[in-house]
Design a protein that fits this description.
heterodimer; A: about 150 residues; mainly alpha; 5 helices; B: 434 Repressor (Amino-terminal Domain); two-stranded antiparallel ribbon; 2 strands; globular
Chain lengths: ~150, ~70
């Protein structure tokens, strides 16, 4: 497994771990009817700090384990795989953006979501965008791993 | 049956004093995993890399890669 591929696996694991925590926290807050703007802000702050801390830790650990390849530059295959990953992520992110715009233009279409979250509409939009960005990120990493494993 | 690109890199490396994949990767300027993928037919390299490989082994391009 190359340095790049190993790095993608770890990033995928970190992303899934952090966002699973965020959405499970959100889910339990909704279940207990205790979801407030401040609790959501605090959950988002945790996501940001954990992402920064874990990504730094991830790069340090990988650099220690595989110090020979730390300064390894992407070659043409890495760049192509990276592009394929970004391409699939782009479609999902575009879809999410459209969904957020539709939510703004036609609030009735997503009234159910607003009722469930029990938060002002802008927070529903934030969660639509966050969910889309997360799905896009996971799709990007998964696509890259798929092409590293299967070839193209 | 659809045609595909095959290659003789494994044999050419063997003939070149059992050159390692890492050595070839360093010469061509790609990672060892990319050489592995090319040898297994999992990745078709760019023309530039293909020519570099052929140039290194001092053989025509069609000796290294075939479209069949």
């Amino acid at each position: 497994m190359s340095y790049k591929e190993r790095s993608i696996w770890v990033s995928l694991a970190i992303t899934l771990y952090i966002w699973f925590n965020y959405f499970s926290e959100l889910y339990w807050a909704i279940q207990q009817d205790s979801l407030t703007i401040s609790s959501m802000k605090s959950a988002l702050f945790t996501v940001v700090t954990m992402t920064i801390a874990l990504e730094i830790l991830h790069h340090i650990v990988i650099a220690i384990i595989d110090n020979k390849n730390t300064n390894y530059d992407e070659d043409e295959r890495d760049k192509q795989i990276s592009l394929l990953g970004s391409q699939s992520a782009y479609y999902l992110l575009s879809f999410t953006t459209i969904a957020a715009v539709l939510h703004l233009l036609f609030p009735l279409m997503s009234q159910g979501l607003v009722d469930i979250l029990n938060l002002p509409s802008e927070y529903a939009i934030i969660n639509i965008i966050i969910f889309g960005a997360l799905t896009a990120e996971v799709t990007k990493f998964s696509t890259q791993i798929f092409y590293y494993r299967r070839g193209f | 049956m659809a045609k595909r690109i095959t290659n003789n890199i494994r044999r050419l490396r063997f003939d070149a004093d059992e050159m390692t994949q890492q050595m070839l990767a360093d010469v061509v300027g790609v990672s060892r995993q990319t050489i592995v993928a090319i040898e297994k037919g999992k990745y078709s390299p760019s023309l530039e890399v293909a020519f570099k490989i052929a140039e290194y082994f001092n053989v025509p391009l069609e000796v290294v890669f075939q479209y069949q």
